[in-house]
Prior knowledge:
By secondary structure, the chain is mainly alpha-helical. The protein is 83% helix and 0% strand. The mean pLDDT is 82.
Amino acid sequence: DGMAIASHVALSLLMTIFPFIIFVAALAGFVGDAQLAQQVAYIIFNIWPEQVASPIAAQVHDVLTGVTPGLITVSAAVAIFLASNGVEAVRTALNRAYRCIETRSVFFRRGQSLVFVAIGAVASLVLAFLGVLGPTAFAYLGERFPALLAYEAIYNVVRLVMTTFLMVVVLVAAHLWLPQSRPPALQLWPGVVTTLVLWVIAGKVFAFYLGKFANYAATYAGLASVVTAIFFLYLIALIMIIGAELNAALRRLRDGRLR
């Protein structure tokens, strides 16, 4: 039932994005720079295909600019709970892939999901702060050391690498701590690497498909952007499940050889 679980994860993640950004906005306002939330949204959608990210990013921008900071702060408590639903959906997918029956307390699981959301929000803000501070610092150094300006393209690649690194950390953390049980940590790398490689391929292929063949507006009219985002997240979730299934299959193979 991996496809059914992938659909559940995709819808949960789509419903998680807006509460997560609202929570990040409240956290950014608490540290004194509400504009960091816009940078976090840019970081999140920068790794999506442009055709998928643009409509959703525009709606997120409207959310962040259309409400008062006080309302965002009041909504943060509800937002972090709603955002944790996305973590719970990923937990369900990994438990099914690793053939686990969940026995931990619901309070423990929800608390762990809330911690995941909070750490993700803080990490996103730190990355956003570096993204805002970095160009300023690079321009400052470029004025005094003009030779550095030749490496500006490399600097932009480094920013993308940092975003990718954060995504890898989140994926590894999900495999390590969300499921009831899983293979030993050093044996998780086949599924993680497979997931990352297939994510990159899926992003390129899906962008090509949207640009050359797909016309969701003709079928779904005003819902085209939402359907496109769900379809993309469905692919991302399905690939994550395939990576976990690969790890589970390799564990069964090892256990059979040991016996």
